[in-house]
Input
Amino acid sequence: MARPKRIWMPGAKYHVTCRGNHRNEIFRDNEDREVYLQIVRQSLSRFRYCLHCFCLMTNHVHLLLETTDVPIWLIMHYINMSFTHYMNDKYELVGHLFQGRYGAEPVHENDVMLFISRYIHLNPVRAGMVANPEDYRWSSYRMFIGQESADLVDPRPLLSQLGADVHFRYLDWCRTCVETEAFRKHLARQQGTRVKQGPGTVNKV
Output
């Protein structure tokens, strides 16, 4: 039985996730990540959609994008197939790189997109890979806080919701989330640690 097509209309927005087959890694080195972003750049020129933010993890990818007049499945087919061909050629692999079909959650409100961008950008912190999101090279976070030029993404529709001094406000908003007790406890569970209540050290169990 054929799979149903994604719900799509011009201007539709999606939180897209692509995961490695059998939860295996998608990227093996930084060159792979650079090539993936170059393919995304080519897809932006080819299909004229808008990428609002991204994060490349080891075994999955997050993209927050807004289509124009090209369906999302054409965009994602181009990205995933192009990158799969590159990986198979480079590492002499066969078979699927990605686990099934990509996930695409429709997003209907701009304020929801702002929260999704924070969730995406805090993925490396949540996974215990870095202490601060600006320390992670392979996301658009530093473009959101003004540390890098936003030549690949367009954060303006999201940042405009924060009023004046948007770069600092976004940075402060994300840092406040990282500093919450619930977030710190989640990190402790991820890293096999116990977090003391209030100020204090993080100890191994």
Q: What stands out?
A: Residues 194-205 have pLDDT under 50 and may be disordered. The two ends are 50 Å apart (CA to CA). The chain has eight helices and six strands. Residues 49 and 67 are 5 Å apart (CA to CA).
